[in-house]
Amino acid sequence: MITFHKNYFLLTLxxxxxxxxxxxxIHDNFIRPYIGDVLVVILIYCFVKSFLKVSVxxxxxAVLLFAICIETLQxxxxxxxxxxxxxxxxxxxxxxxxxxxDILAYIAGILIVIVFEKVLRKKLQ
Length: 125
Known about the structure:
This protein has one domain. 78% of the residues lie in helices and 0% in strands. The protein has six helices and no strands. The two termini are 24 Å apart.
C-alpha cells in the first residue's frame, strides 16, 4: 500500500507552489477563493497518490471528505476555539469562515481529478 509515485509528487510540488503564489500574491474575488479551493483538493489528492497505492475513487472520496471536515471545522470556528486566531499559518491552512461555495469548489476539484484519471488518462495511453 505504501509506494512512491514520482509524477504525483511532482504535481504535488507544482500545485503547492501555485497555491502559495495564489495565497501571497492574488487578492481578488475569484481566483483566490474559488480556483484556490478547486486546486487544493487536487493538490491533496496528488499528495495522497504520491505515497499510497489506492484507487482513484477511494483517494478522491477520502480527500473530498477531508476537505468537507475542514470546512465543517471552520463552521464551528475551530481556530478561535483552539486559541489560534492570531496565528497566520493556522488561519491560512485551516481557514476561518465556512462557505457552501467552498464545498462546491472542492466537489469541482474532485470531479476534475476523476475525469482526468478515468477519461483523459485512458485517451493519453
